[in-house]
Design brief:
Strand content: 25-35%
Low-confidence stretches: 1-5
CATH class: Mainly Beta
Radius of gyration: 21 Å
Mean pLDDT: 84
Shape: elongated
CATH architecture: Roll
Structural class: alpha+beta
Order of helices and strands: HEHEEEH
Number of helices: 3
């Protein structure tokens, strides 16, 4: 391998990474889950409460393109909900799960 190939490899990697940095991804924060029968869904109305499987205070699951990548806690930022990351998988694991 010549010296030029060694010097250019990081540059090629950076160009490849730059190519994917602008790809939009769907980020979802899941508060909890439940299963309901069709008849129960049809009976839902304003003010109804749907019980979820998670307990109050449990970490929220954070998905990127439907793949779990982190867990966090709910916060309020400028009167909007947000999520503070408290546990995150390694960058290599995240790339593998997202792509």
């Amino acid at each position: 391998m010549s010296e030029n190939q060694t010097v250019n490899e990081p540059e090629v990697d950076k160009k490849n990474l730059d190519f994917i940095l602008d790809i939009p991804l769907q980020v979802t924060v899941e508060l909890g889950r439940t299963k309901l029968l069709v008849k129960d869904v049809l009976q839902l109305n304003q003010g109804a409460v749907v019980e979820l499987t998670k307990l109050a205070g449990d970490p929220l699951d954070i998905f990127v393109n439907s793949k779990l990548v982190a867990r966090g806690e709910a916060v309020v930022v400028n009167e909007k909900f947000g999520v503070r990351l408290v546990d995150i998988v390694s960058p290599n694991e995240r790339v593998e799960k997202v792509l």
